[in-house]
Specification:
Order of helices and strands: HHHEHEEHE
Distance between the termini: 17 Å
Strand content: 15-25%
CATH class of the largest domain: Alpha Beta
CATH architecture of the largest domain: 2-Layer Sandwich
Strand order of the largest sheet: 2-3-1-4
CATH superfamily of the largest domain: Lrp/AsnC effector binding domain/regulation of amino acid metabolism (RAM) domain
Largest sheet: 4 strands, antiparallel
Helix content: 25-40%
Shape: elongated
Radius of gyration: 21 Å
């Protein structure tokens, strides 16, 4: 789907506030409420918007540590890769998993309450992952930049009545 300027403005606002009422969204992007709703539904149906979530402060729910784990597997056969990927998806502490090019085959980001909790995760989760030949863990001291919104090269300004469109 090719995104036009109005689609990008809608997406920019929704990334900032996914619970904004449609009437307020329409006003911010300069559309009528019905035209705005049609566009949002089209963005949902095409998968550009693939869901809405509440973003939690991980520290306030006791997940104070971010740990990055580089994983090297015993081989690159499809069976080895598939078994690892299916297993890693089953563990709730693993927040992200990336197939990598370079020294490691995968990079995991997981969260833990503290070092003792990480030790538990290491024993009960990481050590049970199939096909692992090597693991290297790095502990983040603190996040510097953590974004959830993609830049769509658009700025949203309050729309006045003269700029309202009905597309």
């Amino acid at each position: 789907m090719k995104l036009d300027r109005l689609d990008k403005r809608i997406l920019t606002v929704l990334q900032q506030d996914g619970r904004i009422p449609n009437a307020d969204l329409a006003e911010k992007v300069g559309l009528s409420a019905s035209a705005c709703l049609r566009r949002v539904r089209a963005l949902e149906e095409t998968g550009v918007i693939n869901g809405y979530v509440a973003l939690l402060d991980q520290r306030k729910i006791g997940r104070r540590m971010d740990v990055f784990v580089e994983i090297s597997l015993v081989g690159q056969a499809n069976e080895v890769l598939n078994a690892f990927e299916q297993a890693v998806a089953q563990y709730p502490e693993i927040m992200e998993c990336y197939l990598m090019a370079g020294d490691a085959d995968y990079l995991l980001r997981l969260t833990a309450e503290d070092p003792n909790d990480f030790e538990r995760i290491h024993r009960e989760t990481l050590a049970r992952l199939p096909g692992v030949s090597r693991m290297k863990s790095s502990f983040a001291i603190r996040p510097i930049v953590r974004k959830t919104a993609f830049s769509l090269d658009t700025q949203v300004r309050p729309a006045d009545d003269s700029s309202r469109r009905t597309r």
